[in-house]
């Protein structure tokens, strides 16, 4: 018979996690709809639940020596409201458009990562921030870059005895600014057809000093665009958009589904990336000017 | 709550504060907060539309932030403070919003209203003077399918103290003057000044009709309402100018059934059932076409405590079939060994809630043999396709045909001809209330209480399935949380009746969103080929079309679609030569039924696109070509009917200034080089109100009883469109008393006569006439008591009937009048059936007594790189004959426009793929264009006080107007809807644009 655990401390939670295979529940905004979908077609089964929502250790946004630490239970709303450097603007913009306010008030950044949907809006943002996931088990803590944590279509490197305890982001480069662009078929409550995130710093010389760009929903998991990033470094901000050549996005392997065709996704990703690069470079140019 | 683990059957106790009061409730920690509130605390104001975070109907405020109560586990609410619609809200904000919603007509069906109120409370508590964008962001998570969000935003902004009318979604509607005050001429300002409305609203008591209150079972849906005017401020609902001195007609009174909707006390299908009712969970086929054998169910049943029965086709006591027409009852209640679509019911578990939710489908001994399904009409029409129904070789359910003149000759003599092929998708009604209700054996009768659009048809279907006489069934409709055609067909009613019959116990059901979407009807996908010709002046010469409509696995309303489309196929224009052929085709897909427009919206996409083609070929303006051909009063339709009221020319004329301005705006914008291009489009529509050439009478009754109560017995169910209010206004006008004077008894088959279905935009016209006749009959009776002349004034107060005729005034003690056994001293009854005639073999005749007309204009912005379309504005001009209640009429148009926008841009139901509101997208508050509405009142001679229907006309023109605008913006001629971004992008690539 299924059991429901709601411990008060991380230690208790990790002990339960070590003991059995159990579904971790945070905001429930992915888990509950999935359960409803199963029940809708007659699968009434229940799994054991480990509700982590009471673990204070998983809450809070802190500035650390090397950057920022976001507790796993940080909600989209908490992220949106937080005072953070401009490099986080993309992730914060994504937070504003995940679902509606109700979902933002419950859904957590760690839950989004663990679901590892190709359309998870947080993932490309975290890739562009060079973020890592802090994974804790009874045996200890390890930190895995987001790009390694998300291993494929809805799969992650999370071990059955671990919990995500935090998302850590290294201190962004001087002058780095972030942006996010989401494409959906309606204004609110919409799963992305494609989305792009970027963090770009423009130097005193008006040239791009660093660029980190990622695209979601255009491959089994969100992808950093490493070739494009390399090509952008050193480019004058004003010429950045024209440097975004289609072949520099060939990490993407978009597919056809009910929301869009693969060809369209590829073209849309290019447009979104150009929009982001253009916006950020222009922004950077204005800052240094 | 204790720490550590609980087993699910271990009910635990959680302590929370609800609306300021400390409560403890016993819960299963897995269940949702929504369930805890509804089942545990009886707070039924919190609605459940999807159990997945997608609709927002369950929105409550948890520790100061809005959340979906369906996503929060009950355990997580332990120790929290929860605000629900039942509370006044922080600083009384919810109460203020409630009044504003009622005043603005922001609640139609009302199922989204609690969620909207809480989302709005959330933003205004945080930011009392919130601007429009903040409000939209806050409401973005709550879906409304009825209102187009316009009046909801108006209401919230009025409380937010937003005074700048120019920021409204639409400007002031052209006809409508004041909402509540008579003194302001500004249209909106008067209701937008900050703070609560200065006048007390009218409140309405929901009062039991006595039949059930004594049982104390959480009161089913007594749909009896007593009007109580809280203050006698006669100026509160001032008459608009120029309405010919009507007393009630034309007034913007608040919905008579509105208070419960804004208070959260309205009883919808899932909100009440006898306490001892068993639950029903239906097992459905996961396959589109298959045979199956059911093994030993008894062994499963006996293993599961609390599982009382598993019912199947064998347990159906009468006929195991239902369907709209006597000749098309082809859908089984439970499939008997053979399923024809994914989602078809094969059995039902009946037992305690825990029991039916503990058994998975896979636990039951069902052996499936999967067969290849026929998907799409081509597959079904293929020569080698198996016949899905014995009586329909070739899988053609019905054909429709219309012939006038000689289309071939007409085309040959034309200066320009346009041809095209068009395709539309399955569209889901997406009412926010999934089907729900209960059945209860009462003596030797079966009572079914459920949300429905058609109580008398439910009665017939239920009696047939039970194998009993009609008088052995009573249907007691609950409030209906949206219908749009989807709650016309029987769905849960026969299942409930069979389960109640099998167990002898009351039984209840609440469809999940998935089963509601998978098993109930859809809009017919259409494939249309059509050709339109015009002479050199742009005058239409000929039109011909062939249309195939995918009716899915069962007939439902397929015949109606096949017959209605040819009549409307040309659009509302004068066309001398017409041929139209339609087929409704069976496939192994979800049954298609009735959905706002019955095929006419699909056909409108074809004819309007072709008309744009003709305009292009002939170098004519798109407005101009429509104006030249617009059908008008006295013109003949393609069925040979001469129209007595046709206000289309006036509708087009009303849009002309906006058309010119819109073209100029777009041209100005497009002078820039950006990738966003703007365009303007236009489309016209017509719609015959009532059933096509079939009798569809309605009967209404008004009684005056010895105790002085005036009661309106109205069998027309109000699915949010406002018939309860509109019909009462009509009855009041005819009788000569205020609408508030009535006690209302709505839609109970024991207490009201058959008013027909709430469909085909017929209630205002057909039931409206019945209400008028009932009012006139009672008036005659009253006047004859005093020998008074026709101009006499009647009033009823405190048991006294006063009849003032000129100088003379008679006062009659009502209790002194002779009464019948029911205590009725005077009654007026009215029956009306629209005068139509059958269509002959060539589709000639008078199919409808009245037609509604509209022209709509769309302004769009298209991002040509992404293929996304933002509809900036819709300007709508509708000939409604007479707006009995302009607020409600506007509300219908707003909601229709929103649905038309969804049809054009985002809605596509794919069985097995989009069976939830996550993947099936309907417009949110952020997708709404500005809307301006022109109400054209070209009085309908046969209509009550000149009125005709508007429910369906609202939707038809929107999609073609948007397509026209997209084409104007980009050159892309889109012939398939929805125009998803990738489809438009692909068209732009092909066009080299
Ligand atoms: C209506 C609606 C709209 C949405 N729209 C969007 C959208 O636009 N964009 C988007 O990206 N997402 C969207 N989502 C999904 C979304 O809200 C999230 O992905 C959310 O962030 C998940 O967080 P949660 O806390 O609710 O996760 P839960 O549902 O509680 O859990 C999700 C997964 O993460 C695991 N998990 C959670 N926390 C931990 C932890 N600390 N350690 C280990 N495992 C953990 C769970 O076991 C589960 O596998 C939407 C959801 C809904 C219901
Ligand atoms: S019921 Fe909770 S969002 Fe639909
Ligand atoms: S009023 Fe909003 S869904 Fe009906």
Question: What would you say about this model in short?
Answer:
The complex is a heterodimer of chains A (289) and B (993). By secondary structure, chain A is an alpha+beta fold.
Report on this structure:
The complex is a heterodimer of chains A (289) and B (993). By secondary structure, chain A is α+β, with helices and mostly antiparallel strands. Chain A has a domain at 177-281: Enolase-like, domain 1 (2-Layer Sandwich). Chain A contains 11 helices and 14 strands. Chain A has helices at residues 10-19, 31-40, 76-81, 89-97, 101-106, 109-115, 122-128, 146-149, 226-232, 240-243, 262-288, and strands at residues 4-5, 23-25, 49-51, 61-63, 67-71, 132-137, 140-145, 150-152, 155-156, 163-170, 176-183, 194-202, 208-216, 223-224. In chain A, the strands form 4 sheets. Chain A has a 5-stranded antiparallel β-sheet. In chain A, strands 11-12-13-14 form a 4-stranded antiparallel β-sheet, sandwiched between helices. Among the domains of chain B are: 12-83, Ubiquitin-like (UB roll) (Roll), CATH 3.10.20.30; 191-248 and 697-833, Aldehyde oxidase/xanthine dehydrogenase, molybdopterin binding domain (Aldehyde Oxidoreductase, domain 4); 278-374 and 429-519, 2-Layer Sandwich (Aldehyde Oxidoreductase, domain 4), CATH 3.30.365. Chain B has 993 residues and is an alpha+beta fold. Residues 162-242 of chain B have low confidence and may be disordered. Chain B is globular, with a radius of gyration of 28 Å. Chain B has a 7-stranded mixed β-sheet, with helices on both faces. Chain B is 26% helix and 23% strand. In chain B, helix 2 crosses helix 5 (150-159), helix 12 (455-466) crosses helix 13 and helix 19 (723-735) runs parallel beside helix 20 (763-785). In chain B, helix 19 (723-735) links the parallel strand 26 and strand 27 (743-746). Chain B has 24 helices and 34 strands. Chain B starts with a strand and ends with a helix. At the A-B interface, strand 1, helix 2, helix 5 and helix 11 of A face strand 1, strand 5, helix 14 and helix 24 of B. Strand 1 (4-5) of chain A pairs antiparallel with strand 1 of chain B.
């Amino acid at each position: 018979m299924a059991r429901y655990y709601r411990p008060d401390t991380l230690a208790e939670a990790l002990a339960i996690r070590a003991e059995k295979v159990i579904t971790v529940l945070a905001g429930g905004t992915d888990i509950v709809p999935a359960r409803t979908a199963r029940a809708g077609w007659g699968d009434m089964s229940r799994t054991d639940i480990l509700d982590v929502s009471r673990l204070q250790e998983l809450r809070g946004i802190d500035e650390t020596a090397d950057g920022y630490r976001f507790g796993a239970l940080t909600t989209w709303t908490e992220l949106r409201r937080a005072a953070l450097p401009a490099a986080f603007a993309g992730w914060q913009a994504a937070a504003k458009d995940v679902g509606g306010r109700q979902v933002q008030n419950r859904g957590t950044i760690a839950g989004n990562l663990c679901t590892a949907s190709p359309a998870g809006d947080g993932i490309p943002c975290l890739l562009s921030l060079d973020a890592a996931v802090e994974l804790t088990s009874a045996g200890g803590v390890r930190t895995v870059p987001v790009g390694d944590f998300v291993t494929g279509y809805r799969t992650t490197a999370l071990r059955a005895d671990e919990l995500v305890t935090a998302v850590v982001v290294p201190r962004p480069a001087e002058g780095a600014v972030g942006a996010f662009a989401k494409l959906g078929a309606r204004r609110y409550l919409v799963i992305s057809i494609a989305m792009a995130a970027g963090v770009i710093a423009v130097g005193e010389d008006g040239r791009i000093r660093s660029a980190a760009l990622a695209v979601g929903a255009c491959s089994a998991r969100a992808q950093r665009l490493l070739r494009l990033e390399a090509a952008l470094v050193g480019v004058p901000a004003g010429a950045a958009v024209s440097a975004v050549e289609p072949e520099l996005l060939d990490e993407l392997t978009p597919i056809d589904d009910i929301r869009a065709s693969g060809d369209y996704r590829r073209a849309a990703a290019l447009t979104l990336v150009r929009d982001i690069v253009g916006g950020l470079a222009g922004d950077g140019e204005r800052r240094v000017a | 709550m204790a720490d550590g683990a609980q087993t699910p059957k271990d009910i635990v106790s959680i302590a929370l504060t609800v609306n300021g009061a400390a409560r403890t409730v016993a819960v299963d920690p897995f269940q949702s907060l929504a369930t805890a509130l509804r089942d545990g605390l009886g707070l039924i104001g919190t609605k459940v539309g999807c159990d997945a975070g997608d609709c927002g109907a369950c929105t409550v405020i948890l520790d100061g932030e809005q959340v979906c109560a369906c996503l929060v586990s009950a355990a997580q609410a332990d120790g929290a403070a929860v605000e629900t619609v039942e509370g006044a809200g922080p600083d009384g904000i919810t109460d203020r919003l409630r009044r504003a919603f009622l005043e603005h007509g922001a609640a139609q069906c009302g199922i989204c209203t609690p969620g909207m109120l809480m989302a709005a409370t959330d933003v205004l508590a945080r930011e009392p003077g919130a601007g429009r964008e903040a409000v939209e962001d806050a409401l973005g998570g709550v879906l409304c399918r009825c209102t187009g969000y316009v009046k909801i935003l108006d209401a919230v902004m009025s409380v937010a103290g937003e005074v700048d009318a120019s920021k409204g979604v639409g400007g002031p509607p052209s006809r409508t003057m004041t909402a509540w005050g008579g003194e302001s001429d500004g249209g909106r300002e008067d209701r937008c000044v900050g703070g609560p409305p200065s006048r007390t609203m009218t409140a309405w008591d929901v009062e039991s009709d006595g039949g059930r209150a004594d049982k104390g079972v959480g009161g089913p849906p007594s749909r009896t309402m007593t009007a109580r005017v809280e203050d006698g401020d006669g100026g509160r609902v001032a008459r608009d100018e120029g309405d010919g001195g009507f007393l009630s007609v034309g007034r913007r009174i608040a919905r008579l059934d509105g208070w419960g909707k804004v208070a959260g006390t309205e009883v919808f299908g899932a909100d009440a059932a006898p306490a001892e009712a068993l639950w029903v969970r239906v097992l459905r086929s996961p396959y589109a076409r298959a045979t199956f054998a059911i093994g030993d169910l008894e062994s499963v049943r006996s293993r599961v405590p609390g599982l009382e029965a598993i019912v199947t086709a064998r347990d159906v006591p009468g006929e195991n079939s239902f369907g709209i027409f006597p000749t098309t009852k082809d859908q089984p209640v439970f499939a008997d060994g053979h399923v024809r679509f994914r989602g078809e019911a094969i059995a039902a578990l009946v037992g305690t809630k825990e029991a039916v939710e503990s058994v998975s489908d896979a636990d039951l001994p069902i052996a499936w043999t999967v067969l290849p399904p026929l998907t799409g009409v081509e597959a079904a029409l293929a020569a080698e396709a198996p016949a899905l129904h014995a009586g329909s070789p070739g899988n053609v359910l019905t054909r429709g045909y219309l012939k006038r003149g000689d289309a071939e000759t007409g085309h040959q003599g034309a200066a320009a001809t346009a041809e095209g092929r068009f395709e539309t998708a399955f569209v889901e009604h997406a009412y926010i209330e999934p089907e729900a209700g209960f059945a209860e054996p009462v003596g030797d009768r079966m009572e079914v209480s459920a949300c429905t659009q058609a109580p008398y048809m439910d009665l017939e279907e239920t009696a047939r399935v039970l194998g009993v006489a009609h008088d052995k069934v009573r249907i007691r409709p609950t409030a209906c949380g949206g219908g749009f055609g989807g709650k016309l067909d029987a769905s849960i009613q026969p299942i409930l009746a069979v389960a109640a019959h099998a167990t002898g116990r009351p039984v209840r059901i609440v469809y999940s969103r998935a089963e509601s979407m998978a098993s109930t009807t859809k809009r017919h996908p259409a494939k249309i080929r059509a050709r339109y010709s015009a002479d050199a002046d742009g005058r239409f010469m000929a039109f011909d079309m062939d249309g195939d409509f995918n009716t899915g696995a069962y007939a439902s309303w397929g015949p109606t679609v096949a017959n209605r489309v040819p009549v409307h196929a040309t659009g509302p224009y004068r066309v001398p030569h017409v041929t139209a052929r339609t087929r409704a085709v069976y496939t192994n897909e979800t049954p298609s039924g009735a959905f706002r427009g019955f095929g006419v919206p699909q056909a409108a996409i074809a004819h309007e696109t072709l008309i744009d083609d003709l305009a292009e070929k002939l170098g004519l303006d798109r407005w101009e070509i429509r104006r030249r051909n617009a059908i008008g009063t006295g013109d003949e339709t393609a069925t040979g009917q001469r129209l007595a009221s046709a206000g289309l020319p006036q509708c087009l004329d009303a849009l002309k200034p906006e058309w010119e301005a819109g073209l100029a705006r777009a041209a100005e914008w497009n002078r820039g080089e950006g990738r966003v291009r703007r365009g303007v489009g236009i489309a016209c529509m017509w719609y015959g109100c009532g059933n096509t050439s079939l009798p569809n009478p309605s009967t209404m009754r008004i009684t005056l009883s010895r105790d002085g109560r005036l009661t309106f017995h109205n069998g027309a169910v109000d699915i949010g469109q406002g018939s309860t209010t509109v019909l009462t206004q009509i009855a009041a006008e005819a009788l000569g008393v205020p609408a508030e004077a009535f006690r209302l008894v709505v839609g109970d088959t024991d207490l009201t006569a058959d008013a027909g279905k709430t469909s085909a935009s017929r209630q205002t016209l057909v039931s409206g006439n019945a209400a008028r006749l009932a009012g006139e009959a009672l008036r005659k009776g009253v006047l004859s008591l005093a020998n008074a002349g026709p101009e006499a004034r009647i009033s009823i107060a405190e048991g006294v009937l006063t009849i003032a005729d000129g100088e003379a005034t008679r006062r009659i003690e009502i209790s002194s009048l002779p009464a019948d056994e029911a205590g009725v001293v005077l009654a007026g009854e009215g029956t009306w059936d629209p005068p139509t005639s059958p269509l002959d073999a060539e589709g000639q005749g008078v199919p409808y007594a009245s037609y509604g007309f509209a022209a709509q204009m769309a302004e769009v912005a298209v991002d040509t790189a992404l293929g996304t379309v933002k509809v900036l504005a819709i300007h709508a001009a509708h000939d409604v004959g007479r707006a009995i209640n302009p607020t409600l009429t506007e509300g219908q148009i707003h909601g229709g426009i929103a649905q038309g926008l969804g049809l054009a841009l985002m809605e596509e139901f794919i069985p097995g793929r989009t069976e939830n509101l996550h993947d099936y997208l309907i417009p949110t508050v952020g997708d709404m264009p500005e809307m301006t509405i022109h109400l054209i009142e070209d009085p309908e001679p046969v209509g009550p006080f000149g009125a005709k229907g508007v429910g369906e006309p609202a939707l038809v023109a929107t999609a073609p107007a948007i397509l026209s605008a997209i084409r104007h913006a980009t050159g892309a001629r889109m012939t398939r809807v929805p125009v998803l971004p990738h489809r438009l992008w692909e068209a732009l690539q092909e066009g080299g644009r």
